[in-house]
Design a protein that fits this description.
There is one protein chain. This protein has nine helices and four strands. The mean pLDDT is about 95. A four-stranded parallel beta sheet has the order 2-1-3-4. Helix 2 links the parallel strand 1 and strand 2. The longest helix is centred in the C-terminal third of the chain and has 23 residues.
């Protein structure tokens, strides 16, 4: 069902304990010359359709209600066309949505997302934890976990023959490269511009000095993982700060529909686990990259 098409009476007739709300979330953002600004939100919307199929099969006695997409995100790449929003605004928006839905008796909102902005993920997780703690409401965004798996080149993710280091959405394939172009070839190939197969690899720059220094400090304090995440963030920050730099990182010329489907299979497997845990009444906290430094979401845009 489409939420906006329902009447007040029809909302009232739903068994809220057995209704799952779903929504696509991601910003409009530059993704190179070969992908449109809508790449992230389009992938999220197409992924949402697969979430619906998964839930219909696994939980056939639950009603599914789709909310309008929210084309919003933090830390969008500062290139022409990108639309960026403060992380705290995103966090407050998601929590307000959860508060409204909990007020009508709903318990679950499952989000499809495809944006790896550092503060975007921190804002989503902060809103989710607050909604669960204060309202008993599940706001589940599987991409919070998936992006960490991608960045860490997790062995579970790389079990697939089509997914490998440097092309699984990690630091060397961060944005508009093999992974995202493959997702688009699998989900909406008509939106991929001609010549994509000839676009060469673009590598991430060295970390910005301040981030590299902070990373060394955290590693010296025994917080190796935080230090590594800061090094990754430093590379991202250096790339974003270069206004004349590329608007993609990775190798679009290595993309394929097969790679995209392999990534989608892994993402659905992850989502199924998280959705099942929520419906079974378990707490579902996640730790996106830099969660130990989640205070970063309070920084100005």
């Amino acid at each position: 069902m489409e939420y906006r098409e329902l009447t007040t009476d029809e909302i009232g007739e739903l068994d809220k304990s057995k209704t799952v709300l779903l929504m696509a979330l991601s910003p409009l953002e530059a993704h190179g010359a070969h992908l449109p600004l809508e790449t992230d939100i389009l992938v999220a919307e197409k992924l949402l359709e697969r979430y619906i199929e998964l839930l219909q099969e696994k939980f056939p006695d639950y009603d599914l209600v789709r909310l309008p997409s929210l084309p919003m995100g933090s830390d969008a790449l500062p290139r022409p066309g990108s639309l960026d929003f403060p992380a705290r605004l995103l966090e407050k928006t998601l929590y307000s949505l959860a508060r409204n839905m909990a007020g009508w008796g709903f318990k679950y909102l499952f989000i499809a997302d495809n944006h790896g902005g550092p503060r975007h993920l921190l804002a989503c997780e902060a809103a989710a934890r607050k909604a669960y703690r204060r309202l008993g409401f599940y706001l589940i965004n599987p991409f919070n976990r998936e992006f960490a798996l991608m960045m860490n080149q997790d062995p579970w993710l790389l079990e697939s023959d089509e997914l490998d280091k440097g092309s699984c959405g990690d630091l060397h394939d961060l944005h508009g490269g093999t992974n995202e172009t493959s997702l688009m070839l699998a989900l909406s190939p008509d939106k991929v511009r001609e010549g994509q197969e000839k676009i060469p690899q673009e590598k991430p720059p060295p970390p910005a000095p301040l981030f590299a220094f902070a990373a060394r400090v955290f590693k010296a304090l025994g917080r190796k993982k935080t230090g590594e995440e800061l090094m990754n963030l430093g590379s991202t920050a250096a790339w974003a700060a270069d206004k004349e730099g590329s608007s993609y990182i990775g190798a679009p010329d290595s993309a394929s529909k097969v790679r995209g489907e392999a990534m989608l299979a892994k993402r659905l497997e992850n989502a199924e686990e998280l959705f099942t845990r929520a419906i079974n009444g378990e707490a579902v906290p996640m730790k996106p990259p830099l969660w130990s430094l989640r205070i970063l979401r309070f920084l100005p845009i």
